[in-house]
Design a protein that fits this description.
Layout (H helix, E strand, L loop, with lengths): L15 H8 L4 H13 L17 E3 L8 E5 L5 E3 H14 L3 E4 L5 E6 L4 H10 L16 E2 L14 H11 L14 E3 L14 E10 L2 E10 L11 E7 L4 H15 L10 H8 L1 H12 L7 E2 L11 E4 L5 E6 L5 E3 H14 L3 E4 L5 E7 L3 H5 L3 H4 L11 E3 L14 H14 L8 E4 L13 E10 L2 E10 L11 E2 L4 E2 L3 H15 L9
Parallel strand pairs: 6-7, 7-8, 17-18, 18-19
Antiparallel strand pairs: 1-2, 2-5, 3-15, 4-5, 4-14, 8-9, 8-11, 9-10, 12-13, 13-16, 15-16, 19-20, 20-21, 20-22
Helix pairs in contact: 3-9, 5-6, 6-8, 12-13
The protein binds iron/sulfur cluster (SF4).
Length: about 525
């Protein structure tokens, strides 16, 4: 049953999805999938119910008529145990044709699932504390954060307990399961912003403040970031939040979005539009009515942006221990590789893995004397800790292979392009390449050194897949989205055009200049 929300009184002004959410809370669909549709089959599902499937983490796979689904599984802050990794691998093997994609929100995705598979999938995930619930839909999605939480020499505090508290506060909480639109939370205490604070609806970044003569470690709070076709960089509120207050503040901000966010037009419903219209001062005023007064901002401790890359072998904050960052080319891996990763995590580490928002993975907690043996493992030939400067920094959304919203194919194009550039160009710095198959920006192209946005172009041969190219995006400081170059490039020409672009940069750059700074 859906709750009786205040906005129900203006039902005639609400969009179609909003009206559906008033009839049935999105979370109810989980039971319907298990107890009705999985038993009665694909043909029993009423068309209008598919938009609620997202609350179970389920999307229809392209083409919709074939009856296959995609499932997204939330992995808060990328924290995964080897036991969980094995369950993910076995489910992919049993139902998902062995494919596993790591996403730009540290989640994993399956494809090729059928409606009959979901009861067993949900059960086996739940047994190891993994959930697909609210990984999609108008609700708090996967909480992203520092993939190195707890082992990071560059973090002020270990954010793992806070991530767990946030997950507990939001997951399956019907107070927040009907938001105006998707809602993305990020929390990190690293001074290098691995949680991409500026592109989330709500973010917490490290800060300190002197309170009653004592230096307190806590967080600054950002609201209203998001990508898609009208990207906004988040803005900081003028408050300082102690670690134990994060959940209260997050709930308060979510309440503001729930009760004041726009529900008329889907494309203007994200929190970013409310923040842009109100400004941060008014937003904080309304928030203060809910959570009471908080101290003003302290000293920001973020000093730069590591773009979420941890390739290679690095020291942890625990003496004598190292983490090994592995590259998963364009985020696509397999059940077989996930089984092997779980084995390596047990054999060389502490039985844990970390997924990263650059679609990569980390094996943490490796003692120094185990490193050489780990680096000789055959799996690390493909998932290498020392990737080349293009392949190792290439991010791709799902694209037309499986996604109904896609205008273009993406993963294969990006794999091919990055490999070509690695063969053709010698360069002493990585170049971050991101591709989106449509403006929804799951591939986060606006923050890339070189971003590709898929679309269509008319040619003599008819309509073909083509890309706009944007350059110079980053999240240092307040962040800056990349700038779109004129014209479009046919898909087949992308590798050569990017080669020309990178060679031009290489030729003209000053000695220490990077692609973005
Ligand atoms: Fe699909 Fe567009 Fe997201 Fe790519 S960016 S996965 S094409 S919705």
């Amino acid at each position: 049953m859906a709750k009786q929300w205040a906005w129900a009184e203006q039902a005639d002004q609400l969009n179609q999805v909003e009206r559906l959410k008033l009839e049935q809370d999105g979370l109810d669909i989980i039971n319907d999938i298990i107890h009705i549709y999985a038993k009665e089959g694909f043909s029993s599902i009423p068309e209008e119910k598919f938009s609620l499937f997202k609350w179970a983490g389920v999307y229809q796979q392209r083409p919709k008529s074939d009856g296959y689904f995609m499932l997204r599984i939330r992995i808060p802050s990328g924290l995964l145990t080897s036991q969980q990794a094995r369950v993910l691998a076995s489910l992919s093997q049993d139902y998902g044709r062995g494919l596993i994609d790591v996403t730009t929100r540290q989640a994993v995705q399956y494809h090729w699932l059928q409606i009959e598979n979901f009861p067993d999938i949900f059960k086996r995930l739940g047994e190891v504390g993994l959930y697909s619930w609210e990984a999609c839909g108008d609700c708090p999605r996967t909480i992203v954060g520092n993939a190195l939480a707890g082992i990071d020499p560059n973090e002020l505090i270990d954010t793992r307990p806070i991530v767990a508290e946030l997950e507990k506060a939001f997951l399956l909480n019907r107070e927040f399961s009907n938001l105006p639109r998707k809602y993305k939370i990020s929390i990190s205490s690293s001074i290098y912003n691995p949680g991409n604070a500026q592109i989330n609806d709500l973010s917490f970044t490290p800060a300190v403040k002197e309170i009653d003569g004592e230096e307190v470690i806590g967080f600054h709070v950002w609201v209203g970031g998001g990508l898609s076709n009208r990207p906004h960089l988040a803005k900081q509120l003028n408050i300082f939040v102690r670690p134990e207050q994060v959940v209260e503040v997050a709930k308060g901000i979510t309440e503001v979005f729930r009760d004041h966010g726009y529900r008329e037009k889907r494309h203007k419903a994200r929190l970013k539009f409310l923040v842009a219209d109100w400004g941060v001062d008014k937003f904080l005023e309304v928030l203060t009515e809910i959570i009471g007064p908080y101290p003003t901002r302290g000293m920001d401790k973020t000093v730069g942006w590591n773009a979420g890359y941890f390739n290679g072998v690095h020291r942890q904050k625990q003496d004598g221990y190292y983490y090994v960052g592995l590259n998963i080319p364009v985020g696509r891996t397999s059940a077989e590789e996930f089984f092997q990763l779980a084995d390596l995590a047990d054999q060389y580490g502490s039985g844990s893995l970390r997924t990263v928002n650059t679609q990569n993975i980390i094996i943490p907690d490796v003692p120094k004397d185990q490193l050489d043996e780990l680096l000789k493992e055959p799996l690390l030939q493909r998932l290498t800790p020392q990737p080349k400067p293009f392949t190792g920094y290439a991010v791709s959304c799902t694209g037309i292979e499986f996604c109904n919203l896609a205008l273009t194919e993406t993963k294969e194009l990006m794999r091919r392009t990055a490999e070509f550039l690695d063969q053709e160009i010698e360069i002493d710095q990585p170049i971050r390449l991101h591709v989106n198959g449509c403006p929804n920006s799951c591939g986060q192209q606006q923050i890339a050194d070189i971003g590709l946005l898929g679309g269509k172009m008319r040619t003599k041969e008819g309509m073909v897949e083509a890309y706009t190219i944007s350059i110079g995006g980053h999240l240092h400081g307040d962040g800056q989205f990349n700038t779109q170059l004129k014209g479009r490039v046919k898909s087949d020409d992308v590798p050569h055009v990017l080669k020309g672009l990178v060679l031009l940069f290489k030729e003209q750059k000053q000695s220490n200049e990077t692609f973005t700074q």
